[in-house]
Write a structure and sequence with these properties.
By secondary structure, the chain is α/β, with parallel strands linked by helices. The protein has one domain: Metal-dependent hydrolases (TIM Barrel). The chain has 12 helices and 9 strands. The protein has helices spanning 10-23, 44-54, 69-78, 100-108, 122-130, 132-137, 162-174, 185-197, 216-224, 246-256, 275-288, 293-308, and strands at residues 27-31, 58-61, 84-86, 88-90, 113-115, 177-179, 202-206, 227-232, 261-264.
């Protein structure tokens, strides 16, 4: 979706051209399009069409409550032109939580990413109960659903649960990608250590300083273990979820290093920019912070491609 302009200063035209150029080949591994129990601005077809028009290389469709493999297959077969549509499973309660069988079926149908519980992680639920700002910012289901018991990746001794180990073995065998979801950073460390021991090569953590409550030191430690950092664009650009400033943006990039950092829009909700609009905005912010085009391209394209084996 290139900018349509009829006039403007040379500087403005050059800036828009740079953003257009950096959108070519961009990868968004965190799109929340619909249908969903949470209100969505765009559906899966629109997400694919907009990414195609913008020249993006790949997008991943994510829902907190259902796996997206069949949808990705249909999008690739009937709607995508150049963009590759990837799929995922999120291990929340509707899929049985930490359910090895659900992961087995998902991976055999081509799921690229397995997310540990997000909205149904105990850590997330506790945030929702205790933190009014968190509760107000995270999307609410449009229909009442059953209460769920929050899940943890480790037991009371801090040992990774057997079901999680079994899931990690499947991910390793499929050479798929895994995220610790919305679990606290205290759970993330033993989880990623166990993943490495079991041969999982593709590791990342979303919004590490948000619900996971990671520090800059935690980011540095996880990166040293081979865990890539995905930062949510929605938390930095003007929208209903914005809560972090450009100083924080620079700090998280410096903590992880450009080579270990990439961005996912985490967009698609009502009242927010579309994923493509969010990507254009974060590219502009990164340029304004002084990052060169090679570094920006790494953080919006090539790092994610490398993580997913798309190169």
């Amino acid at each position: 979706m290139k900018a349509q302009i009829t006039g403007g200063t040379t500087e403005t035209l050059e800036r828009l051209a740079r953003i257009d150029r950096l959108m070519q080949g961009a990868v968004d591994l965190h799109i929340h399009s619909g249908p969903s129990l949470m209100p969505r601005k765009i559906d899966h077809v629109q997400a694919v069409q907009q990414a195609d028009a913008a020249g993006m290389a790949a997008i991943l469709l994510k829902d907190h409550y259902y796996p997206t493999m069949p949808i990705a297959h249909l999008m690739n077969a009937h709607h995508a032109r150049k963009v590759k549509v990837l799929s995922a499973i999120v291990l929340n309660a509707p899929l049985g939580g930490l359910n090895p069988s659900a992961v087995d079926y998902a991976l055999r149908q081509g799921a690229s990413i397995v997310w540990m519980p997000t909205a149904h992680a105990l850590n997330h639920i506790e945030h929702d109960r205790k933190d009014a700002e968190f509760k107000n910012k995270f999307p609410t289901n449009t229909k009442k659903t059953r209460e769920v018991e929050g899940m943890t990746l480790v037991d009371e001794t801090g040992t990774v649960r057997d079901a999680v180990k079994e899931i990690l073995d499947m991910i390793a065998e499929a050479d798929a990608t895994v995220s610790a979801g919305h679990h606290h950073i205290r759970e993330a460390f033993p989880f990623y250590e166990e993943a490495r021991r079991r041969g999982v090569r593709r590791l990342f953590l979303n919004h590490p300083t948000y619900v996971n409550e990671g520090t800059m030191a935690d980011i540095r430690s996880l990166v040293s273990m081979g865990v890539k950092m995905e930062h949510s664009i929605c938390m930095f650009v003007p929208c209903g979820f914005q809560q972090m400033d450009t100083d924080h943006l620079r700090a998280v990039i410096e903590a992880g290093g450009v080579g270990n950092t990439f961005f996912g829009s985490d967009l698609g909700q009502n009242g927010n920019p579309t994923p493509v609009e969010g990507f254009r905005q974060i590219i502009a912010m990164l340029l304004d912070l002084g990052y060169g085009e090679d570094d920006v391209r790494a953080m919006v394209s090539t790092n994610a491609k490398s993580l997913m084996g798309l190169e």
